[in-house]
């Protein structure tokens, strides 16, 4: 296991977690939008 491959794995993991965070934030926004009383 070389140092470079470890760095690459960390980078990939960070990108994936950022992507999941974005999806989670979208869900939160949608939920907040749906909870608003409709006019």
Annotation keywords:
single chain, mainly alpha
What do you see in this structure?
The chain is mainly α and 39 residues long. Helix content is 85%, strand content 0%.
The tally of helices reads 1
Q: Considering DSSP H and I runs of 4 or more, what fraction of the residues is helical?
A: over 70%
Number of strands: 0
| Gyration radius over CA | 17 Å
Give the biggest beta sheet: none
Q: pLDDT below 50 for ≥5 consecutive residues: which ranges?
A: none
Order of helix and strand elements from N to C terminus: H
Short description:
This protein is an all-alpha fold and 39 residues long. Helix content is 85%, strand content 0%. It is rod-shaped.
SSE layout:
Layout: H1 3-35
């Amino acid at each position: 296991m070389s140092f470079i491959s470890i760095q690459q794995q960390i980078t990939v993991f960070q990108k994936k977690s950022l992507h999941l965070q974005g999806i989670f934030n979208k869900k939160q926004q949608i939920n907040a939008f749906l909870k608003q009383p409709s006019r």
